[in-house]
Amino acid sequence: YITPDVWWYYMIELSFYWALMVSQFTDVKRRDFAQMFVHHCATIMLMSFSWACNLTRVGTLVLIVHDVADIFLESAKMAKYAGKLNLCNILFAVFTIVWIISRLGIFPFKIIYSCALEAPTLYPTFPAYYIFNILLLCLMCLHIFWTYWIVQGAYKTIAKGHMEKDVRSSSEEEITEDDEVDEDEKKKMKRN
């Protein structure tokens, strides 16, 4: 039996990931474009498998573990856009800690461990079970990849005292509105 709150959680998250996957092709290209595409595909497949195979308990756990860090990342971005750089730095630091705990701690050592090693002792396995676990491991590999970029961004933030642009930006040639503002500020500083 699926409760209404789980149904809505799944439908909203599934819609969100489909929208991200489609909009990725029209958004600013990042260095991790391919990894992000794989992430969206794996997430959609995981959600579909967990829904179809009645594995919604683990599905909701995976979603929560992934969503908890995103709250702080999006808050840090909003603080940066609002010009609150100290708050941005604090939120980015919290994001980094929560990311590492949730995605490199809880996800592999609780969720993947339970799905891959404990579940077969309790329930009979079936073909989709193996695909499900492979997709979980795929997400784990992506977490390790992105942790490198996050730690690099955190290091640069500490070294420079403020958050720079997204470290995933693919080239210096792409100039966003934020970059134009930064260039204007640099020119003003040179004049003074």
From TrEMBL:
Residues 1-159 form the TLC domain. It is found in: Membrane. Residues 172-183 have a biased composition (Acidic residues). Pathway: Lipid metabolism; sphingolipid metabolism; Sphingolipid metabolism. The keyword Transmembrane applies. Keywords: Membrane, Transmembrane, Transmembrane helix. GO terms for cellular component: membrane. It comes from the Eukaryota. Pfam families: TRAM_LAG1_CLN8. GO terms for molecular function: sphingosine N-acyltransferase activity. Residues 165-192 are annotated as: Disordered. Signal peptide: none annotated. The chain crosses the membrane at residues 6-26, 88-109, 129-151. It is a multi-pass membrane protein. GO terms for biological process: ceramide biosynthetic process. Its main location: membrane. This is TLC domain-containing protein. It comes from Notodromas monacha.
